[in-house]
Specification:
By secondary structure, the protein is of the alpha/beta class. The protein has 4 domains: about 70 residues, no CATH class; about 110 residues, no CATH class; about 180 residues, Rossmann fold (3-Layer(aba) Sandwich), CATH 3.40.50; about 50 residues, no CATH class. Helices cover about 45% and strands about 15% of the residues. Helix 15 runs parallel beside helix 17. The longest helix is centred in the first third of the chain and has 23 residues. The structure holds adenosine-5'-triphosphate (ATP) and magnesium ion. The site of magnesium ion has 4 residues, from helix 9.
Length: about 475
């Protein structure tokens, strides 16, 4: 086609060039660099001649082609110039999903205020200590951080196949500036956030139309709860044994949960012990206040409890309903009573959780799996026998009045510089404190007095009096 349109002169030149290129081929094999340069020069020569040639149609077409090419290139110039400019004034950091830091960034997202404003979110169930977390969805998002605007691009591959069974993800953060130290600081913040998250693996959740994490909750450490010798160790062994026995429970067809009852007078460490044990085993606590539920809401709250967690029923003896379901006479009286504003229509709802409702979630069809139930009570004698049977309560621990050994240990935790002898002397001098909570109050007062300078610690034993003759 293009040969037909060429003039004889141009054709002659083209053939001549072709032949001479063929002739030169042998030389080029020996000296490739020289050959390439020569052939480029010849092509250029050919182009020049064609443009200046007789056939105006061919040379015009060629010219148009060149102009078209240049204009297409120039059209991309503003975009290229913009990209170059953006590259010059911004910096970028990318995190791939095969790097551990990818999860850390997701954890960091959860702590950022801008997350609450984002309208395109992705559900994530892989993050530590969270059942469900909302993180930015794939696409780009803008936010303001450390005094600069940030853009985060979240890429996710859509296709999966046998060679790539998993979708890949990438996060790219871009912000204004050129100093790499700013990016290092940004990374350090993410690492710090991750450290804090791993330091606390036990969260506290309370129910308010859905489980909410209590911000500010800091769990107790097991060392700080002082029990009688061997009690803590025995309890811990029991929990460890249970946590290792999942397969065994499954093969036996036994529901995989275990109930613990801690009972005794107020201020003996029941709540503190639950907090410390949950921290020790890295479990979150779901604290239930039974007076705020009815049977239906209790069941739905239970359905939302995370696996491998502690469900805490405090003061189980204080259930609104008392021991059992209301009897029919009570029902009819209750039904006739005028409804207070905001009170539920169904009297059953007004009664709160019934015993059978509670028993159901502890050991019935709606009982959650892989959880520890902890119940605390000041009056075990108020509890229904059905609640105390194994399967609902498998382990009971009585926390009673503080022993001298407990008090001595607590004293030495407060004042590590004090000798054993000093501690025992102090404890013997204060028999009026019956529970650990009372003794702790006394030690706090002592510490305060020391700080204000009214006493010096450790308290000295009184000088031994000379024996009267
Ligand atoms: N065994 C203990 N070891 C260390 N501290 C204790 C102990 N018992 C109680 N305390 C201290 O006393 C305070 C009250 O303890 P906690 O709330 O655990 O008691 P409780 O048994 O749950 O009381 P209640 O029955 O009133 O709920 C806490 O500040 C805790 O530090
Ligand atoms: Mg308590």
């Amino acid at each position: 086609m293009s040969l037909v349109a060429c003039s004889p002169a141009a054709l002659h030149v083209w053939c001549g060039t072709f032949l001479s290129r063929a002739r030169d081929a042998d030389d080029n094999l020996l000296t490739p660099g020289r050959g390439r340069l020569e052939s480029t020069c010849k092509m250029f020569e050919l182009l020049k001649r064609m443009l200046a040639g007789q056939n105006q149609f061919a040379s015009g077409g060629l010219l148009l082609m060149i102009i078209g090419g240049i204009s297409v290139y120039l059209r991309a110039v503003p975009l290229k110039a913009w990209e170059w400019f953006v590259d010059q004034v911004t910096m970028m950091i990318t995190i791939k999903d095969d790097d551990a830091a990818f999860v850390w960034v997701k954890e960091w997202f959860l702590e950022q205020k801008f997350l609450k404003r984002i309208r395109r979110v992705d559900v994530d169930t892989t993050l530590r200590g969270r059942n469900v977390a909302l993180i930015p969805a794939p696409g780009h998002h803008w936010f303001w951080h450390a005094g600069r605007p940030f853009r985060v691009d979240f890429y996710r591959t859509e296709e999966t196949n046998s060679s790539r069974p998993r979708r890949h993800e990438l996060l790219a953060f871009r912000t204004i500036g050129r100093k790499q130290s700013f990016l290092s600081q940004f990374v350090a913040e993410i690492v710090e956030c991750h450290r804090n998250n791993t330091a606390i693996t036990s969260w506290l959740y309370v129910y308010d139309d859905g489980w909410t994490r209590v911000e500010g909750y800091s769990p107790r450490f097991l060392d700080s709860v002082v029990l009688k010798a061997g009690e803590k160790e025995h309890l811990m062994k029991d929990i460890e044994k249970f946590r290792k026995a999942r397969q065994r429970y499954r093969s036996l067809g036994v529901p995989y949960h275990r109930g613990y009852l801690l009972y005794g007078p107020p201020g003996t460490g029941k709540t503190s012990l639950v907090s410390a044990l949950a921290e020790k085993f890295g479990m979150s606590i779901y604290a239930m206040n039974l007076t705020q539920f009815n049977d239906k809401s209790l069941m739905s709250a239970m359905n939302d409890v995370g696996q491998n967690s502690v469900i805490l029923f405090e003061d189980i003896d204080c259930m609104k309903t008392g021991k059992t379901r209301p009897n029919p006479d009570q029902w009819s009286v209750e039904k006739q009573m005028p409804k207070k504003p905001g009170e539920k229509e169904d009297p059953l709802d007004r009664f709160g959780v019934t015993l059978s409702g509670l028993l159901n979630v502890l050991d019935g069809f709606s009982a959650p799996e892989n959880v520890l139930f902890f119940m605390t009570s000041n009056q075990i004698e108020m509890l229904d026998r059905a609640l105390l049977r194994p399967g609902r309560i498998d382990y009971r621990l009585y926390l009673g009045k503080a022993t001298e050994q407990q008090k001595t240990e607590l004293y030495r935790r407060f004042f590590p510089q004090a000798s054993m002898f000093d501690a025992q002397w102090f404890v013997e001098g204060h028999p009026e404190t019956e529970t650990m909570a009372e003794f702790q109050g006394l030690l706090l007062a002592l510490e305060e007095a020391h700080e204000s300078g009214s006493i010096t610690l450790p308290l000295q034993l009184p000088e031994s009096q000379p024996v009267a003759e």
